[in-house]
Amino acid sequence: MPSAETTRTHVQEPDPVRPTKEDEVAAAGSELIGGPIGRWALLGSSWWTPVRVIALVMLGMFALGMVQKFSCYDGAWFFGASSQYTHACYSDIPHLYQGRGFADGLVPYFDKLPGDMDYLEYPVLTGVFMEVASWLTLGGGSIQHLEKIYWMVNAGMLMVCAVIIAVCVARTHRRRPWDGLLVALAPAFALTSTINWDLLAVALTAAAMLMWSRGRAIAFGVLLGLATAAKFYPFLVLGPLLLLCWRAGRWRDFGKALAASVGAWLLVNLPVMLLAPEGWSKFYRFSQERGVDFGSVWLIIQQRWNVQISPDDANTYALVLMVLACLGITALALTAPRRPRFAQLAFLVIAAFILTNKVYSPQYVLWLILFAALARPRWRDFLIWQACEVAYFLGIWMYLAYTTSGDKHRGLPADGYHLVILVHLLGTLYLCAVIVRDILMPERDVVRRSGDDDPSGGVLDGSPDVFVLGHAAHPPRHAAHNEEHPQVSWGWDADERRSP
Predict the structure, then answer these.
(1) pLDDT of 344-399, one tens digit each?
(2) What is the average per-residue pLDDT within 149-168?
(3) Buried b (16+ CB within 10 A) or exposed e, 282-311
(4) SS3 letters for the chain?
(5) Does the pLDDT of residue 8 top 70, yes or no?
(6) d(C-alpha 463, C-alpha 199), whole Å
(7) Cα angle value 34/38/41 (rounded, 5°)
(8) Does residue 297 surpass a pLDDT of 60?
(9) Residue 77 — pLDDT band, cuts 50, 70, 90?
(10) Separation CA 54–CA 234 (nearest Å)
(11) Dihedral of CA 238/215/160/191: which sign?
(12) pLDDT for res 30
């Protein structure tokens, strides 16, 4: 009788999924570069592997995003309040070089800042990133010249983060490396990458997702904890993971991930928390005390109907809606006919946070692009959503141009800005809707239709359910029969995972 090891050697992995074969938009778009994937792309010895191509495309798109900021680099950041908005090239980075004390050598969280902003209002790991960039900002000259250099240094560091994101997405779904092009070619990614420092947290989250897909729960937890030390939102990913591990009975793996996340977060935060508690808590106090701001549905309500919403009320409303959304996601995860994929639930929970939050800065789209490419790798839906986000990107700058141009009123008035906020909200809700449909109708899921179960799910990939609610807990006989023979639909490594 052949051994398990011998059996594994005879299991042939299915071919990589070719997007030009399953996606009509990808096939049509490929005509710009010579048509659908062919025999040269399938040569194993070719240097042009999918990961390398995607990394180079990301570098090119990031560079185009930097070029788009040229008008501001050439003077609009410094010599005209409204011109940086009319050219849609605004960035926080040069303004905060002096505004947060980096130009004066102040130490984040330990040294007080002059004016109303008493301490740096960013999480610790992002503060470290900003400080390292200030160390690399060398040279003399005017403060404007140094701010340009500071932006350029940060752009170089953020470019590394962008490539990491694209490569991690390309490698997370083993059979679908070309899905990484969704990230690399996303127009909103290129436009918003150098507005702020969000790419650091996104890169760490992308690396965490890659580690989980490889079954490395501790490495996933460490990277996710570091991502949470750079931005709060990655911690929300543990919620969907809890639900999926609950349904699959993978408590030990979830426990490892949670412990590693908390440990990594404490490793970064605890020294600053103990030595500079007031500076460390500034980010959390600022988030709590911040009023209704740009991009949120609460701003439309406040301006349209002249209703004043206090920060406390906005926090309460947002929290209630977020809890309701999470309850809905919980019901979906535990009652779906087939266990949802990790990336699907992660997208839904981050989208819920964005939709209910009291502020939506244009760079927040970066939080979702990673999960969108993994959850719904379909070019039509992705581009519809991206078009909505680009509209919002242009709309917020035109609105700010209108409010800062005085009597000239150049730009977009409040009514027009409310419209682009709605476009952003509806675009995100549209992508949520198609993902929910994929969960309720797994046969419509493009990833599962190609023969995989949950490529980003790691230990969840191909695992049987141990806790299910609703109709899914009592499948018909033919469905139960399919569960006994999962290799038909669980993808490239189902036979190997089931081997003794």
Answers:
(1) 999 999 999 999 999 999 999 999 999 999 999 999 999 999 999 999 999 999 99
(2) 97
(3) bbeeebeeebbebbbbbbbbbeeeeeebee
(4) CCCHHHHHHCCCCCCCCCHHHHCHHHHHHHHHHCCCCCCHHHCCCCCCCHHHHHHHHHHHHHHHHHHHCHHHHHHHHHHCCCHHHHCCCCCHHHHHHHHCCCCCCCCCCCCCCCCCCCCCCCCHHHHHHHHHHHHCCCCCCCHHHHHHHHHHHHHHHHHHHHHHHHHHHHHHCCCCHHHHHHHHCCHHHHHHCCCCCHHHHHHHHHHHHHHHHCCCHHHHHHHHHHHHHHCCHHHHHHHHHHHHHHHHCCHHHHHHHHHHHHHHHHHHHHHHHHHCHHHHCHHHHHHHHCCCCCCCHHHHHHHHCCCCCCHHHHHHHHHHHHHHHHHHHHHHHHHCCCCCCHHHHHHHHHHHHHHHCCCCCHHHHHHHHHHHHHHCCCHHHHHHHHHHHHHHHHHHHHHHHHHHCHHHCCCCCHHHHHHHHHHHHHHHHHHHHHHHHHHHCHHHCHHHHCCCCCCCCHHHCCCCCCCCCHHHHCCCHHHHHHHHCHHHCCCCCHHHHHCC
(5) no
(6) 33
(7) 95
(8) yes
(9) confident
(10) 24
(11) negative
(12) 53
Angstrom distance (rounded) from CA 421 to CA 305: 16
Could you tell me what percent of the chain has a pLDDT over 90?
Answer: 74
Give pLDDT, residue 450.
Answer: 81
Phi then psi for residue 482, to 5 deg, are -65, -35
8 Å CB contact between 465 and 248: yes
168 burial via Cβ count (<10 Å: 0-12, 13-18, 19+) = buried
Least confident of 13-17, 258-262, 482-486: 482-486
Query: What's the predicted TM-score (pTM) here?
Result: 0.89
> Which residues 6+ apart lie within 8 Å of 431 measured at CB?
347, 351, 372, 376, 381, 382, 384, 385
CA–CA separation, 144 vs 138, rounded Å? 13
Q: Is the pLDDT of residue 207 over 90?
A: yes
How many whole angstroms from its chain centre is CA 347? 8
**What are φ and ψ of residue 36, in 5° steps?**
-60, 160
Dist. CA 457–CA 455, nearest whole Å = 5
Cα–Cα distance for residue pair 448/360, rounded to 1 Å? 32
- Residue 485: CB atoms within 10 A of its CB come to 10
Quick one: tokens of 368? Answer: 């979702």
State the Cα–Cα distance between residues 113 and 110, nearest whole angstrom.
Answer: 10
Whether 394 contacts 362, CB under 8 Å: no
- Residue 473 in this model has a pLDDT that exceeds 80: no
Q: Which two tokens stand for residue 279?
A: 């500076």
Q: Among residues of the chain, what percentage have pLDDT more than 70?
A: 85
- Written as six digits, the tokens of 21 are 């074969």
| CA dihedral for 253, 254, 259, 260, sign (positive or negative) | positive
